[in-house]
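Thread title: Can someone regenerate the structure for this chain?

I was given the following input by a collaborator and told the matching structure tokens would be attached. They weren't. Posting the sequence so someone can regenerate them.
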Amino acid sequence: MSIILIILGIILFLLLISIKQISEYERGILFTFGKFKRIMSPGWKVVFPIFQTYSKVDIRTKAVDVPEQDAITKDNVSIRINAVIYYKVFDASKAILAVERYQYAVGQLAQTTMRNAVGAVSLDELLSERDKISSEICNVIDKATDPWGIKVENVELKDVKLPEEMQRVIAKVAEAEREKEAVITKSRGEKEAADNLAAAAEILSNSPGSLHLRTLATLNDLSSDQSNTIIFAIPIEVLNAFGQGNMQNVAKQVTKLTKKDE
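Best answer:
Regenerated them for you:
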């Protein structure tokens, strides 16, 4: 009787240690006598010890930080660049059977691909077309990891660090560009102002009395502030009002007054 209880206890113990739980976000790879048997779905599964072994694979999307890499661009500028890669396992059996330590393999592949991609573009292209370069790196890594049962969803270049000398050069270039834009804008404004003044002068010259009205309007604006000193400028129209004949009459009257005094 005691022997039967011992046997039953051993069987119960083996049964308990044979029960394995596979979570919803995992898949199990079952091996029987060292040979791949099947992929285990989520739930409680029985894995007989000694005869069978299994491995769990997390199929959730993983965000892996790619360490900073020293790279040289196409125009021979030394930079340091890092990135983050998002990938997930779509075939758990390939992730275990086709590659050893797929997490490490994906990280090393991402570092190599990133350095190669940076070396194929210039610094200006890297800074201005970061999204395009990230997409190209993602496509290359995804194609390389497809036989491993891994889908690369996205690659983002996080930071590009430049040498201090290059940062100063870029700052000078940016400053020069801003100064150029300022000069162009200022000259464009002067040209527009000159065109407007020329158009206004033409309108005033073609309208008799308009300059006089403009002068009066200016005096009215200045009169609102008592601290201003007003200098009255006689318009050309006022001088023309005298005419050549009126000026001669004024000269005759002055001559008569002079003779009378004598």
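The longest helix spans residues 164-206.
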